[in-house]
Amino acid sequence: MHEHINDPWVKKAKAAGYRARAAFKLLEIDQKDKLLKPGMVVVDLGSAPGSWSQVAAPKLKPDGELFALDILPMDELPDVTFLQGDFREESVLAEFEHLLAGRAVDLVLSDMAPNMSGNAVVDDGRMMGLAELALEFSRDHLREGGNMLIKVFQGAGFMEYRAQMQQLFRTVHSRKPEASRDRSAEVYLLGINRKS
Asked: Which residues bind S-adenosyl-L-methionine per the record (predicted)?
């Protein structure tokens, strides 16, 4: 808790009006890779508290759309359509697909993480489970040529997961933004140009 309060990125986020320090991770990756463009249809999986949606939504104007989904509640944001629910449940996924109304998705974002137990084996397994779901969602909804940015842990299953992404995307990059804590095992995988 002490580390969080004194974290310069947390202070920076507060000052800039972002809901979490994670905003700077997406800002940095987007600055490098130019992921967010006007007119895109973007999905933010595991969106609460909403800092990635805060970064993404303004960059999609005009005519873009951002759909956010999380099991946790999220306060409203302008130009963001939010659905609260667990997309592992068929009914939630069906409602989400109804909101998409047949539109192909240009970009899938996922900053999801499980509740941490402190047991690396358990946490890695849960993280990979969420990552698998996000990849499955991308397989089903991402248009040809679309991109995906996802947080994963460098632990058990990481290389296998990266290999799965390489089957779906023409290029896969690793990104470790500055706002990511050094000791954190998190890394972001960026899948570029979904294959047909």
From this structure: 50, 52, 70, 86, 111
Q: How far apart are CA 149 and CA 45, in angstroms?
A: 10
Domain count, the chain: 1
pLDDT reading at 71 higher than 60 = yes
CATH, residue 42 = 3.40.50.150
Helix (H) / strand (E) containing 127:
helix 120-141
Residues identified as active-site: 151
Bridge-partner residues for 11, per DSSP? none
Average of per-residue pLDDT across 177-193: 89
79 Ramachandran zone, left/alpha/beta (phi>0; psi -120 to 50): left
Is 52 annotated in a binding site? The answer is yes
pLDDT tens sequence across 88-138: 899 998 999 999 998 899 999 999 888 778 887 788 888 898 999 999 999
**pLDDT higher than threshold 70 for residue 15:** yes
Question: What distance, in Å, lies between the first and last C-alpha atoms of the chain?
Answer: 46
User: 30: annotated binding-site residue?
Assistant: no
Residues 149-173 have a mean pLDDT of: 95
11 within some domain? no
Tell me if 124 is assigned to a ligand binding site: no
Beta strands in the chain (DSSP E): 41-45, 65-70, 80-84, 105-110, 142-153, 169-175, 186-194
